[in-house]
Amino acid sequence: MTRLSDSLHDRYAPEEDSEQVLFDAGAVILTRHLLELIRLVSEDVGYHGNWAVAVGASRLRGRRRYAGQSHFPSNHRYSADTYEESTGATLAELREAPGTVTRRLLSPLLRSLDSETLFAKALTDEGWASAS
What we know:
Layout: E1 5-8, E2 19-22, H1 24-45, E3 51-57, E4 64-65, E5 83-89, H2 91-96, H3 98-112
Parallel strand pairs: 2-4
Antiparallel strand pairs: 1-2, 3-5
Helix pairs in contact: 1-3
């Protein structure tokens, strides 16, 4: 994903009063999709070894999560400028526990934005619709 944030502004306010917000849902969904793609490639080419996977984002300092127009915005702002996390994953984990891998990659970010509980199903291996 090339963009994890965007400008959010009131249509009646000047554009310079806009705020950059983070799309934490995008990070979760795209991470799950990437893990599924890795699983499919592994199975297609017959690779049964481990994978090193990582996520990262920059220019995050001071941004809060986008809560939609019907929700109150969170006061939890990300304090660092960058987020980087990596982990290893086996083919068995990619098949049976992609939520666990996603949790290892994204939990620190989501916890700091106070949105980890919102993505509980995606960060576990229960209740997530898999394409497999």
